[in-house]
Structure formats: C-alpha cells, structure tokens
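Subject: Interface between my chains keeps coming out wrong

I've been trying for a while to get a sensible model of this assembly. When I model each chain on its own everything looks fine, but I need the whole thing in one frame so I can look at the contacts. Pasting all components below, labels as-is. Any help appreciated, I'm running out of ideas.
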Amino acid sequence: MEMPDAAQNKRTRAVIIELLNIRHSEQRSRPDHVLMWHMLLDLGADASENEVLTLLQDLFDRGYVAYREEKDRRTSRVSISQIQLTPKGRDLIEGTITDPAFLF
Amino acid sequence: MTGLGLSGSGRHSGEIRVGFRHGLVRYLGITIGGASVLGLALGVGDLAQKEPQRFFDLLSRWGFVWLLALAAMAFLWDLAGKGMGYLGRLADSVQESSQAMNRIADRDDRDKDRMQAEIAFVGGRMERLSAEHEKTRDEMRENHREVVALINRALARGHGDGNA
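Reply #2:
Try treating it as a single job with all components included. I did that and got this:
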C-alpha cells in the first residue's frame, strides 16, 4: 500500500515534467518556481511554495531538470529560476525510460 | 504600495529618474538664469561704485520704467520656472504612466503564457483519457462477445442433454 503523500508527490512530479515539456516544445521562456507553483495551483495541485521548491530540488537531484537557484542571505528565501528539462527528463516524458517515482 | 508597484504618492521608488525635470534642460535653465541675474547685479553694483554720477543719471533717465522692467523680468523668469516645473511634472507623470502600462502588459502576457501552457496540459490529459476510454470500451465489447458465446455454448449443451 502506497502512502498518499508519496502518490501525490509522484503525480505532481509528473505534472511538472509535463508542463516543462509543453513549454519547451512551444519554445516558451523558462519558468521560475513561482510561475510553476501558480500553474500547479491552477491545475488543482494542493502544493505550497516550499513543497514546489522541494519537488524541483528533488527533480534536479534525480537529473530530470536544470535550473538556477539563488538564496537571499538577508531573508534566507530560496528562489529557483530558468527551469528547464534535461535530456533525461525528455527521455522520461517520451517513454524512453521509466521511473516509478512518477505517476503520469 | 499599489498593485502596480507605485508608492502612496504615486511615485515608483528605487528607479533612476531620467526626464525633462531632471535632465539637461533643467541644468541649463538654472545655470543660465542664475548666471544672468548674477551678471546683471554685479554690473549694476560695479557701475554704482565706480561711477555713481553716471549710475544716478542712468537711474533718473530710465526712471521707474527701468525698475518696472526689471521686476517684470523677474516675474516672467519666475513664471517660466514654474512653467518648466509644471512641464517637468507632466513629463514625469507620462513616464510613470507608461511604466505602469508596461507592467500591466507584462503581467497580461505572463498570464496568457501560463494559461496557454495549462490548456495544452489539460488537452494532453484529455487525449490520454479519451484513448484509455476507447481501449476500455473495446475490451468490454470483447468480453461481452466472449460471455455471450459462453452462454450460448452452455445453453446448447443444456438443450443437447435435455434431448438425450
């Protein structure tokens, strides 16, 4: 039996990858984490800003996305910008590779 | 702060202000105007000190018209300064309005951009759901055919047994 949070994380990871793929295929600008967060909220994902940041960092660690991360030293606020899919991320969305950490 | 990033007084803080009121024209206006008044005052003072007789002759010849002209010049200069200030404020407000319009346009573009990506995402999901629905329906049709065949076979066997 899978934990509900784990299943939700898998779905949200998949949505992030799909959104990035759509933006890439339409040659749109690379989003930042705030835009990604708002898109997820619009699509019904129940995620906070910090959860989105954590998921993006997780996707980065897995090698599916690349981005630029900055931390405000005064407020300790992290912001992520210029998010883009890596070739491994495109392989995942095209089905060349599979990963049980995603629920498409 | 307003939604457009303007402070309470309507000014946008933290930006370099380049405009009519803060540019070359203002600098030249102040410099030339100040230098003219200073030159005139120095000239009159010099004349009064070195040649007071000629100065008073000049004063009596020109009379109050000269003083009136000077006052009128000062008034006109002040009026021109106020006019320039007004024009400068007008130019600044136009500049701020255009900046606010740009911000609104940028935000609209971002919203449109975001919605297009979301629509594409939902469209993709709908296509996938539709394909899965088609597949499920085909499987159900196949199962239905098999079930009907099984029932028919069972019925045929029952009839055969009854006949025997």
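Reply #3:
Confirming on my end. The longest helix of chain B spans residues 52-163.
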